[in-house]
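User: two proteins, same treatment. go.

Assistant:
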Amino acid sequence: MTAPTPGDTYVQSFARGLEVIRSFNANAPEQTLSEVAAQTGLTRAGARRILLTLQTLGYVTSDERHFRLTPKILDLGFAYLTSMPMWDLAEPLMDQLVEKVHESCSTAVLDDLEIVYVLRVHTHKIMSTNLSVGSRLPAFWTSLGRVLLGALPEDELKERLARLPRKQYTPYTTMDDATLLERIREAREQGWCLLNQELEEGLTSIAAPIKDRAGNVIAALNISGQSNRTSVELMKDELLPQLLQTSQAISRLMVTRRR
């Protein structure tokens, strides 16, 4: 896949600024000017101009050698969350669901080959990774992701599958294309998806779609549990009906809110 060629509406300096912001992460929470330039492919002079602009705006701070993001950078992400009334509608219902099932509950949206968590209601820690709002996971190997991928047109689904990096997360991870497509189509047809230890051993999850007033899948809701105490049978027989009830209730509230 070749990258799209920027047109007349493309603002290169803005795009470079975003690349500088994205260069900071858990592995590089603070960086020197040279490190930022190397991470982004910018010249030192170019990286310096962007960093100093971000510093002037309050998004970056520096001790004269190392640069790091400030909490103000969260404003950019929260602008997305606050612009979507869905999250306000979903959270109280997710709280109620967690109280009933005593398992963690999440809402996520699809971003190319990944899911991004937009709401999390914890009961207790179930994964070695500390997931929170903004966390990303591979869409093809999460129950949330397979529900969201199932809403894509078939040609778009296959195009994304063709670009998918392969990683054997556990002995149960589905790796071949035919089986992945089959399981995503199954999720689409039945209206929910159960994933058993494909992303992390000991983790089982079940997800259902959240739809807008036109019936389009715009997010997914899931329940996650430890497989040694929350069996696949328990997920299907006891948790799935409550999950579906909650996802449908959120979808109905969204329709009411937008009228």
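Protein 2:
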Amino acid sequence: MPPREHVEFLAGSPNRVALLRLLRDDPRRPSSLTDEGPFSRSTVHRNLDGFVGRDWVRKDGPRYVLTTVGRRVLDKYESLLDTVDVVHGHRPLFTHLGEAATDLPVAAVDDATVVTASAGNPHAPLSHYADALAEIDSERFLGISPIVSGVFNEASRRFVASGTEMELVVDAATLETARSECPDALARARRAENFSLFVADAVSVGLALFDRRVFVGAYDDGGLRALLDGENRPLREWARDHYESVRADAEPVDGEA
């Protein structure tokens, strides 16, 4: 039987997923399954036969037991549902992150805040970031920026002054814009011993990685469209890996701005 037919069978009725979840908890008799859910006797027996025929469930005396195959199928199906739910729930973030979002774990959004720009509040992500920076104390900052922003410069100024170890990666176009539009701010940062500037061929994703907290910025031609703000481990690990991959191909900017 083709894999698609198995998926269509499972997705074809919420009762099938619910029954497998009950069997994942404990082996059960058909009568127990009928009592524990809104299932008719015929629904339970018909689906159990379908599960047994696919080796998702086996019969052990009067009870039915979820097999390793059935557990893997259920786990992956639930993972797919979670992925669809998160990605569709935060479409602006994943859309504007582009290729960088392909390996962003769904769990990275767990317990995190996603702020999206809207017609009524186009600067919501930028405002959130600026407000959050005012509350952060950190010994180290690792950043990537595809744009020049006076708000970012002002919000980051106290980290330069406080001695926070800072690394920032930009692309050549962003560096030239900084030199022409805010030369004083760039010069102050470049003179600071705790600030290191690097230039990469291309940068499309914004990233601010502090001791505990991570911000990921998704951009389009209109600016910052969505911001992911969190502290969970999957997000931090992804952010660290992404920063290191970009930083590995970047060159230090020598001399004064």
